[in-house]
Structures are given as structure tokens and as C-alpha cells.
């Protein structure tokens, strides 16, 4: 699949007409979002969304309490080592934690969720000009995972767009709703700042200099994945997203309802609670590479339910599009031999455009001794 035309100044012009886009999505030139299906009043899940029994969600969940990190303690010098140690332990054990008192106003988070809701509520024809099956496009609206190649479809519509530096990309974002750029932009800038602070904490927990890769982190990529999971008539047969890890160094997730589940190192599933004002932080594949395997990417999935539609906004952070993540030299020694080759976002995009991520894992192609 050809890459989209992104010029050196990041301006983008689609070479495809709307008809051509539709023809790539399905043989009969139609595009069926999950939201469109739910508006038809379905009482059962269409066959293409029914998962094989091995992938279906079940009720067997661990009741273990999941970690919460209070970032106000970082501003108290005597308590900072305690937080660094807490982050070290949770990153090793789970690759996951929630943060509170992170500095992003609740009004900014609410505005982002509200404007995302408005976007998905638009008539389908209002969103179709953003529809694309090309994973390299800097802004794209679609459904499932890879609607062209998926053997089983997933109960999700999504909008993804590049975001950092925001001045390079915001003109490509949706113009409808009219307040989308302002409200999503405010949240995007705030979460970019938060991840820079979190990366310093995580690097310090790895016994690296807190300012390690400082410029690369500040100038790195940020992809906003705005996910919509409509009400599902048979939630025990379907998933919004299958078990997977993110490609990122770090992912920061805002959700309006419970639905995210993570897997621990014992392969037990945990339902992530909704904590008012909290944000979810997850390690990704690129963090596993950078840490030379000390911190693993967390396996997670999105469940659906029959009563509430759910929104999540995931901010995925890594190095810039043209840069590669490699193991930190300080984390390679006789006890920790070099275990990963370098990888970047372009490698990941090439991978998902040709692979079924339900059956293949991006991290496996980065391991030197899989």
C-alpha cells in the first residue's frame, strides 16, 4: 500500500477521491461504521463481529487493586525517591498505572471527550472525507482495526491524527465540529506536557538521567487515537479491541466509562476502574526496546457493553517519525545482554499494513532472540 503524500512541511493532500476511498473499504463500495449498525437497532451481533471462543471476553477477572501514582508528591523533594521507587515497581510488574493530580484540568479533559462525542454523532457523510484505509495517513477515520484485512471485525469506530508539534498538524484535523481543533488541541497540548514529565520519572526509575533523550521526547511523535465503542447487543461475543500492546514508548489514556482491561505477567485480566480525574499510563513496545526488556509493554483489550457507549482518547508517544528507538547503552551489560534491535513508527506502520495484529506481534520482530 502506498504511503500518503506528506510533504517536508507536513502538509498533506489526499490523492484519492471519496469514491476511490469507499471502493477500498469494501467490495460493494459501502462503508459501514459500527455506529451506523447500532442506529439500525440490531438485536444481535453481525457474524463478522463474532469472535472465536478463545478471544471472547469472560467474567474471570482478578480483583487485585491496580496502582495509582499521585504526582503531587514529585514536587516534595523528600518524597520524590518514594514515587520513583513506586513507578519502578509498577512498571516492572504491570507496565501500567493511573496518575492523579497530574495538572490537566478536568474541564479540559471533559471538553475533549465532549467534542469527540460530537464528532462521532455527525452524519456518516460528514466524516467520510476523513475515511482512509491507509495506516500512513496523518488523519484518518475508520472502523475495527484494518477494515480491509480483518478476518474478524471489532466493535469500534476511530479517528486518528498526528499531533506534535501541533502547529504542523492541526490544520488537517476535523473542521466539524467547529470547536474540535480548539478543544482537542487544548487537551493534546496538556497531555504532551504531561508525558514529558512522566518520561523523566520513568527514566529516573531506570537509573538513567531524567533528561535522557530530553529533546527527542519533547520533539517526538504524538498520535491521538480517539476511539468510540457503541452499545453492543451481545458484548460477550465481541470486543472493541483485541489483546495487543501499543507500539509507543508511553500511552496516556482518558476514558469516560470502564471498559479497558489489562493483562498481568501471570496472564490474568484486570478491569481498569474509572477514577474521576485520573489518567491511565501504559508502557509500550518502544519502551520495552529502550529499557532493554526491563519494562515490558502491557497487553490490553477494550471490552464493550450493552448499556453504555464508551469513549477513550489515547495519546501515543514515541520518537519523531524518522527516528528509531534503540536500547539505552547504559542498560546493556553482562547481566542484561542486548536483546532488541532498533525500531521506529515507520516500521510499525509497515508492519500493521501487512500483518494481522491479532495473530502477529510487532515486538517480536524487534527481539534479537525471540
Structure description:
This protein has 370 residues and is α+β, with helices and mostly antiparallel strands. The chain has helices spanning 18-25, 34-39, 80-93, 106-121, 124-127, 166-169, 180-205, 214-218, 285-290, 345-354, 362-366, and strands at residues 68-70, 96-100, 139-143, 157-162, 221-229, 241-244, 250-255, 260-263, 269-271, 279-283, 300-302, 310-318. Strands 1-2-10-7-12-5-4-3 form an eight-stranded mixed sheet. It has a four-stranded antiparallel sheet with strand order 6-11-8-9, with no helix packed on it. Helix 3 crosses helix 7 and helix 4 crosses helix 7. The protein is globular, with a radius of gyration of 20 Å. Mean pLDDT is 88; it is low at 1-29.
Could you say what the CATH topology is called? Jelly Rolls
- Main-sheet strand order equals 1-2-10-7-12-5-4-3
Determine and state the CATH class. Answer: Mainly Beta
Tally of helical runs: 11
Helix-strand topology string: HHEHEHHEEHHHEEEEEEHEEHH
Q: Percent of residues in helical segments?
A: 25-40%
- Compute the number of strand runs: 12
Q: Give the second-level CATH assignment, the architecture.
A: Sandwich
- Which class best fits the helix and strand makeup? alpha+beta
Question: What does the overall shape look like?
Answer: globular
**Largest sheet entry:** 8 strands, mixed
Low-confidence stretches: 1-29
How many domain units?
Answer: 1
Protein name: Fe2OG dioxygenase domain-containing protein
Function: Involved in the regulation of shoot development and salicylic acid (SA) homeostasis.
Keywords: Cytoplasm, Iron, Metal-binding, Nucleus, Oxidoreductase, Vitamin C
Subcellular location: Cytoplasm; Nucleus
Amino acid at each position: 500500500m502506498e504511503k500518503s503524500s506528506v510533504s517536508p512541511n507536513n502538509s498533506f493532500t489526499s490523492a484519492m477521491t471519496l469514491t476511490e476511498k469507499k471502493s477500498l473499504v469494501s467490495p460493494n463500495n459501502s462503508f459501514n461504521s459500527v455506529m451506523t449498525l447500532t442506529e439500525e437497532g440490531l438485536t444481535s451481533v453481525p457474524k463478522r463481529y463474532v469472535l472465536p471462543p478463545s478471544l471472547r471476553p469472560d467474567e474471570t477477572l482478578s480483583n487485585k487493586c491496580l496502582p495509582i501514582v499521585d504526582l503531587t508528591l514529585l514536587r516534595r523533594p523528600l518524597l520524590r525517591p518514594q514515587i520513583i521507587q513506586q513507578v519502578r515497581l509498577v512498571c516492572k510488574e504491570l507496565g501500567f498505572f493511573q496518575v492523579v493530580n497530574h495538572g490537566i484540568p478536568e474541564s479540559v479533559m471533559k471538553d475533549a471527550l465532549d467534542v469527540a462525542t460530537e464528532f462521532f454523532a455527525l452524519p456518516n457523510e460528514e466524516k467520510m472525507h476523513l475515511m482512509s484505509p491507509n495506516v500512513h495517513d496523518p488523519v484518518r477515520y475508520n472502523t475495527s482495526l484494518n477494515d480491509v484485512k480483518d478476518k474478524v471485525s471489532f466493535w469500534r469506530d476511530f479517528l486518528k491524527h498526528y499531533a506534535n508539534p501541533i502547529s504542523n498538524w492541526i490544520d488537517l484535523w476535523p473542521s466539524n465540529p467547529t470547536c474540535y481543533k480548539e478543544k482537542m488541541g487544548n487537551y493534546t497540548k496538556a497531555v504532551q506536557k504531561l508525558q514529558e514529565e512522566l518520561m523523566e520519572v520513568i527514566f529516573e526509575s531506570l537509573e538513567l538521567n531524567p533528561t535522557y533523550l530530553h529533546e527527542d521526547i519533547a520533539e517526538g511523535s504524538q498520535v491521538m487515537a480517539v476511539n468510540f465503542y457503541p452499545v453492543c447487543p451481545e458484548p460477550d461475543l465481541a470486543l472493541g479491541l483485541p489483546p495487543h500492546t501499543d507500539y509507543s514508548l508511553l500511552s496516556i489514556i482518558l476514558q469516560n466509562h470502564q471498559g479497558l482491561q489489562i493483562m498481568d505477567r501471570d496472564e490474568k485480566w484486570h478491569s481498569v476502574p474509572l477514577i474521576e480525574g485520573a489518567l491511565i499510563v501504559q508502557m509500550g513496545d518502544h519502551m520495552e526496546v529502550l529499557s532493554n526488556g526491563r519494562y515490558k509493554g502491557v497487553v490490553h483489550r477494550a471490552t464493550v457493553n450493552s448499556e453504555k457507549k464508551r469513549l477513550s482518547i489515547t495519546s501515543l508517544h514515541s520518537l519523531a517519525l524518522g527516528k528509531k528507538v534503540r536500547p539505552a547503552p547504559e542498560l546493556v551489560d553482562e547481566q542484561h545482554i542486548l536483546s532488541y534491535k532498533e525500531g521506529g513508527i515507520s516500521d510499525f506502520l509497515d508492519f500493521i499494513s501487512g500483518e494481522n495484529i491479532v495473530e502477529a506481534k510487532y515486538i517480536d520482530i524487534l527481539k534479537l532472540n525471540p
